[in-house]
Amino acid sequence: MAAADALAKVRNIGIMAHIDAGKTTTTERILFYTGITYKIGEVHEGAAVMDWMEQEQERGITITSAATKCEWKGHTIQIIDTPGHVDFTVEVERSLRVLDGAVAVYDGVAGVEPQTENVWRQADKYNVPRMCFVNKLDRTGADFFRCVQMMIDRLHATPLVLQIPIGTEGEHIGVVDLVEMRALTWRGETQKGEDYAVEEIPADLAEQAAEWREKLMETLSEVDDGIMERYLEGEDIPVADIKAAIRRATIAGRANPVLTGSAFKNKGVQPMLDAVVEYLPSPLDVPAIEGTAVDGETPMQRQPDPKGPYAALAFKIQTDKHLGKLTYVRVYSGTLESGSQVVNSTKDRKERIGKIYQMHANKREERATAQAGDIIAVQGLKQTTTGDTLCDPANPVILESMTFPEPVIQVA
Ligand code: GDP
């Protein structure tokens, strides 16, 4: 596959949430469905989900790994851990810097909470395209529409409501998909394959569905010129064109697709993964990263081109029991080779790249190289700390001189 084709199928995403909204559960369910951590069907199905979760939690993999790779429908999804606590504002900003898109998870009862507000604002600062998942719809008091209104009032977001729930609390059985105008009904906790069945929209929801479909098209035409004219002329716009417009608006940061379900009950996680692939950007869709020459002043850019001069940003350092110090880096351009000499341009020091690892939820895979768009862990870096740039000695660049002019926002 040509490099550009491969890059177009990469989604580097973060999952952001107020503590307890369900970030961990959602991440675990994603890993469950993408099948990397657990082969569905090997164990008695009723126990499968819990067994797997307990195991993972014991090993602390999804909790501690700074980046985890999985595959979904021919795409590579790399989940970068985004700390949810306000105390780690610097860390949040740094992780936001290396991802291309994010899923904000909300508690369907609590709605938009203070920490989500903070992370949302930080994501605004870095122009991170975002979609929203209203979680915990099974809980008593869950209110999808109230949560959507809070996104407008508190986050000044432009929600593109792509689904409305069929029932809430104990009666939450599925959603109306407003893009394709059909019902998706959840099949249950441990279903193999697709976790939903496609059905007709229930008669008692037909009117509400039509109303929200109209709202979706209205909002979409406000944020996308391509759709506006056709909508105003009353054209019957094909699904593929609607999806393309949602993608454009999301990547441009003009709107936020909203989906819903209950991660804990495996409800709605697969349609959410479909939306990640469909609407969030690949490394090719985001602007080239801005940096400076080593003088710290002359502006420079790096394109996501595996053939360009290599440049990568260190964003997290972790100590692994077996491998020792691991530096997580995002490669922005070029190809990084294990064993090669690089320059840490931030510190003006030479460094040698030791082994390169791709981190999965349950295993690590050694790689000879890492290319633009990749997020990998490097062993053997001695002087590098987070925020440092590693680059080609012949083509130095400093990708980031992160400054934090804003005070840490205190939350009551
Ligand atoms: P995090 O702090 O955002 O990572 O939240 P967790 O994923 O740890 O979830 C917090 C709590 O909410 C846990 O007890 C989960 O089991 C529970 N939870 C997560 N998703 C759901 C859901 O869809 N429905 C319900 N009822 N509980 C959920």
TrEMBL record:
Gene Ontology CC terms: cytoplasm
Subcellular location: Cytoplasm
Domain Tr-type G: 8-284
Main location: cytoplasm
UniProt superkingdom: Bacteria
This protein's UniProt keywords: Cytoplasm, Elongation factor, GTP-binding, Nucleotide-binding, Protein biosynthesis
Binding site for GTP: 17-24, 81-85, 135-138
Keyword field contains Mitochondrion: no
Single GO MF annotation: GTP binding
Alphabetical GO biological process terms: ribosome disassembly
Keyword Transcription tagged: no
Homology family: Belongs to the TRAFAC class translation factor GTPase superfamily. Classic translation factor GTPase family. EF-G/EF-2 subfamily.
Function according to Swiss-Prot or TrEMBL: Catalyzes the GTP-dependent ribosomal translocation step during translation elongation. During this step, the ribosome changes from the pre-translocational (PRE) to the post-translocational (POST) state as the newly formed A-site-bound peptidyl-tRNA and P-site-bound deacylated tRNA move to the P and E sites, respectively. Catalyzes the coordinated movement of the two tRNA molecules, the mRNA and conformational changes in the ribosome.
Record protein name field: Elongation factor G
